[in-house]
Design goal:
Layout (H helix, E strand, L loop, with lengths): L18 E2 L12 E6 L2 E5 L2 E4 L6 E3 L7 E2 L2 E2 L7 H7 E3 L4 H5 L1 E2 L5 E5 L1 E2 L2 E2 L1 E6 L7 E2 L4 E8 L7 E8 L34 E2 L2 E2 L5 E2 L5 E2 L3 E3 L2 E7 L4 E6 L7 E3 L2 H4 L28 E2 L4 E2 L4 E9 L8 E10 L2 E4 L13 E2 L1 H11 L4 H5 L1 H8 L3 E9 L6 H4 L25 H7 L4 E11 L8
Length: 452
C-alpha cells in the first residue's frame, strides 16, 4: 500500500475535540456481527459503530463557537494543544443527515461518499457504548459481504484493523474525556498527521492547511494496520503493515513518522506487503464482469494461518478467497517473473515480490509476518470510504509512480486513469458513490461461509 496519508479527506468544518458536548445526542448505528465455531454454528453480537472524531463538530465548551473552521484553529480557544483540548467539546453525530451513514438492513452498513458538504467517513465497531470491539485474528478467518458496484476509480472503500486502544485512549491520556464512544484514538501504519487531537491534546503546533477543509500538524499517530480490503470497482489489495510499536503511539518528527525521505526509518511499515491481483500479473481477475464480478455483491474471506494451528501461534500466512453466486473463487496466483505462483501472503512471497518490483523490503526489517501476528491479537475494526489528496489513489488502481514505465513489474496496479482520483474531479463527478458492507463474521478457519 503506497498511500501517503491514509485519511486525507475533506472535513468541511466538521472537526474534533476532546471534551463531551451536549448539543447533539450520540446514538451509535447498529451493526451486529456473528462469531462462529463451525459452519452454521454462529452467535450474534449486538455491536454498533461510532463515527471517527475527526469528522465531528467541535465547539467551545460554553457555546456554539467553532474551535476549528475550514483548515484553521480558533486562536482564542486553542493557543496551544493542551489548552485547546480543555476548551473544546466534541459532540454527537447526525449519522444519516450529515454524513450519509445508514444501515439499510440488519447487519449492513452503507457509507455514502458526498453528503451535503461532508466528504467520506470512517467508523469503528463498538462492543458496547463505551469500548471498541477488540479482535484477535490469529488462527481465525474474517468474512464479510461487500458491494462496490457504485464505487468508481479514485475512491477507496476500505475495511481494516488498527491496533487502537480499546477505550480510544480515555484511560491513558487525561486530556481525552470523550473516548471510544466519540471515535477518538485513531492510528494506522501511515502515522497520519491530519488527526486534529492526539493523546488528548490538539495537534495544532505547526498546523498547515492542505486545502480548504483539512491540514496536518507536527505530530502523527502510529500503530500496526491490517488492510483486509482496499478497493473500488476496478482494483483491490489486501496488505499487512507491522510496526515497531505495540500500541497507539505519537510520532514527533519526520523520522519517527516515516515522512518524506525518512519513509523507511519510521515506526511503521508504510508500504506493507500488498497482494493486488492486477499488480501481480492477473489483469482479468477482478473488476466489472471479471472472475470476481464487481457489478454485483460478493463475499470475501480472509484467513490468518498460524505455524502450529493455534490462536497463540506465530503468523505463517494470510489467505484470501471469494464467494459469489454460491461459488468459491480462489484468490489469483501471481504471474510475475521471480515470484512463486502462490495466492497468499507469506514472508517468502513478500521477499520475492519486493525483489521483483525493486521495492524496499521494510516489511521484513520491521519483523515480517511474526511481528504482524503479535499485533493481530488486539485489533479494532475500521470501515471507511475516502478519496486521496496525496497521490489520487494511484497506488491502488492506476500506475504508480505515475512517471514510471507501466510495463516495468509492479508499476501498473489497475486500469484507472491517473487523473480519475483527483479529489476535485471525483467529488464533482461521483458525489453519489457509495459502498455497502454487510454480514460480518469472525470464526474458526472454514466456519464463516457457505457455498453451493
Amino acid at each position: 500500500m503506497y498511500k501517503q496519508v491514509a485519511t486525507a479527506v475533506s472535513f468541511a468544518s466538521l472537526v474534533l475535540g476532546q471534551q463531551i458536548g451536549t448539543l447533539t445526542p450520540e446514538t451509535h448505528p447498529s451493526l451486529p456481527i456473528e462469531v462462529c465455531t463451525a459452519p452454521g454454528a454462529c452467535t450474534k453480537e449486538d455491536t454498533t459503530v461510532t463515527l471517527d472524531a475527526n469528522w465531528r463538530w467541535t465547539h467551545a465548551t460554553d457555546g456554539y463557537t467553532n474551535c476549528y473552521t475550514g483548515n484553521a484553529w480558533n486562536e482564542t480557544a486553542c493557543p496551544d494543544g493542551k489548552t485547546c483540548a480543555a476548551n473544546c467539546a466534541i459532540d454527537g453525530a447526525e449519522y444519516e443527515a450529515t454524513y450519509g451513514i445508514t444501515t439499510p438492513e440488519e447487519g449492513a452498513l452503507r457509507l455514502n461518499f458526498v453528503t451535503a458538504e461532508n466528504v467520506g467517513s470512517r467508523v469503528y465497531l463498538m462492543a458496547d457504548d463505551e469500548k471498541y470491539r477488540l479482535f484477535n485474528l490469529l488462527n481465525k478467518e474474517f468474512t464479510m459481504d461487500v458491494d462496490v458496484s457504485n464505487l468508481p476509480c479514485g475512491l477507496n472503500g476500505a475495511v481494516y484493523f488498527s491496533e487502537m486502544d480499546e477505550d480510544g485512549g480515555l484511560s491513558r491520556f487525561e486530556g481525552n474525556k470523550a473516548g471510544a464512544k466519540y471515535g477518538t484514538g485513531y492510528c494506522d501504519s501511515q502515522c497520519p498527521r491530519d488527526i486534529k487531537f492526539i493523546n488528548g491534546e490538539a495537534n495544532s503546533e505547526e498546523w498547515g492547511g492542505e486545502d480548504g477543509n483539512s491540514g496536518t500538524g507536527k505530530y502523527g499517530t502510529c500503530c500496526a494496520e491490517m488492510d483486509i480490503w482496499e478497493a473500488n470497482m476496478d482494483a483491490t489489495a489486501y496488505t499487512p503493515h507491522p510496526c515497531k510499536v505495540s500500541e497507539q503511539t505519537q510520532c514527533v518528527d519526520d523520522i519517527e513518522c516515516g515522512a518524506g525521505d525518512h519513509r523507511y526509518e519510521g515506526m511503521c511499515d508504510r508500504d506493507g506487503c500488498d497482494f493486488n491481483a492486477f499488480r501481480l500479473g492477473n489483469k482479468e481477475y477482478y473488476g466489472p464482469e471479471k472472475t470476481v464480478d464487481t457489478t454485483k455483491p460478493f463475499t470475501l474471506v480472509t484467513q490468518f494461518v498460524t505455524e502450529d494451528g493455534t490462536d497463540t501461534g506465530a503468523l505463517k500466512s494470510i489467505h484470501r478467497f471469494y464467494v459469489q453466486d454460491g461459488v468459491v473463487i480462489p484468490n489469483s496466483e501471481t504471474v510475475v517473473e521471480g515470484v512463486d505462483p502462490v495466492n497468499y501472503i507469506s514472508d517468502d512471497f513478500c521477499e520475492q515480490q519486493k525483489t521483483a518490483f525493486g521495492d524496499n523490503n521494510h516489511f521484513a526489517t520491521i519483523g515480517g509476518m511474526a511481528a504482524m501476528g503479535k499485533q493481530l491479537e488486539k485489533m479494532v475494526l475500521v470501515l471507511s470510504i475516502w478519496d486521496d489528496h496525496a497521490v489520487y489513489m494511484n497506488w491502488l488502481d492506476s500506475n504508480y509512480p505515475t512517471d514510471a514505465d507501466p510495463t516495468k513489474p509492479g508499476v501498473a496496479r489497475g486500469r484507472c486513469d491517473p487523473e480519475a482520483g483527483v479529489p476535485e474531479t471525483v467529488e464533482a463527478a461521483h458525489p453519489d458513490a457509495y459502498v455497502i458492507y454487510s454480514n460480518i463474521k469472525l470464526g474458526a478457519i472454514n466456519s464463516t461461509f457457505t457455498a453451493a
